[in-house]
TrEMBL record:
It comes from the Eukaryota. The keyword Signal does not apply. The lineage of its organism: Eukaryota, Viridiplantae, Streptophyta, Embryophyta, Bryophyta. Residues 1-45 are annotated as: Disordered. Keywords: Fatty acid biosynthesis, Fatty acid metabolism, Lipid biosynthesis, Lipid metabolism, Transferase. Residues 282-327 form the Beta-ketoacyl-[acyl-carrier-protein] synthase III C-terminal domain. Belongs to the thiolase-like superfamily. FabH family. GO terms for biological process: fatty acid biosynthetic process. Signal peptide: none annotated. This is Beta-ketoacyl-[acyl-carrier-protein] synthase III N-terminal domain-containing protein. NCBIfam families: PRK09352.1. CDD domains: KAS_III (cd00830).
Amino acid sequence: MSAENSRDVSPTSSELKQNEGEPSSHVLAEQRRRVGRGSRLVGSGSAVPKHLITNEDLSKFVDTSDEWISVRTGIRNRRVLGEEESVTSLSVEASRKALEMANVKPEDVDLLLLCTSTPDDLFGSAPQVQKLLGCHNALAFDLTAACSGFVLGLVTATRFIRGGGYENVLVVGSDALSRYVDWTDRGTCILFGDASGALLLQAATDDQDSLLGFDLRSDGNGHKHLHVTVDSVAESSSSGAETNGAAFLQPGKASYECLQMNGKEVFKFAVRAVPQVVEGALQEAGITGNDVDWLLLHQANQRILDSVSDRLHIPSEKVISNLANYGLAARTRLQLDTRTWLNRDKQEFPGLKLWHQKTIKDGTFQLRTASV
């Protein structure tokens, strides 16, 4: 029996025949469990490499300065992988912290989603994270969607809980874009850092659902402005004898070019598209920007955060940011910030509603929006 079939709670024919053709109360309860369950956040963890690179460090080999970088991006430090570190090792460390916070055993995890664009293995790193954590009962696979990856993973996790009967889902966001950055290009190397974060989502009753609304969209037209593509050159056969005299071009060894980015175009896209999806998520949730206590965005650039909050008319003091210390660590920003948030005393957040304060005290929080 497959893992999916083992979770099948569809009524049997005998059960459907009970009570003159009506399904039993047990079957109805099981059906409601599948389509009416919510999700709540019960654990959060993060991990960063030991090696710290400051703006001053960068200025020693790139034509830049601390002032130039901090004024344009808000970033002062970033972390990059060392020799003994990897995407997998950071993912394991962050996940263990999330499981510890949630008081959930590794064997009780049903699904592990690794949201990454830089896996250690082209075939996927999630199964290795699963093995090292001891989550031997969990389905594990990678999910790739660049900067939007973690939000996509979060929404995917809630769908597995709501429609698939999963109880505990570990969502991990990890990236090591330092491997693909041109460290002589001050337009990109100043931005990116490596990190990992993990959230543990657990099934809950529908009235406890922490995901109030989401809006997800894609636009492939922006590929030319931000990409890391395969750089492979075919090689001619050195000897006709190797191919029985036939003309043949041997595929070159695959490698990736350095990250290419048109910063101005990416900035314009972000400040236009992000408010649109946030507003879409707020509309689905049935609330407005005035109801938002805290705004937590993908943290690529402080100027983007400021521009988005201005367009949404959300005061800057409600915008959570710590990219100054980590740089653009891709999809891990949400988890890193969330852990910092959850570890604070609720008295530091006077704008929270009473019911909202209770959920934070219990170790969970209400996710206002999930947006790309």
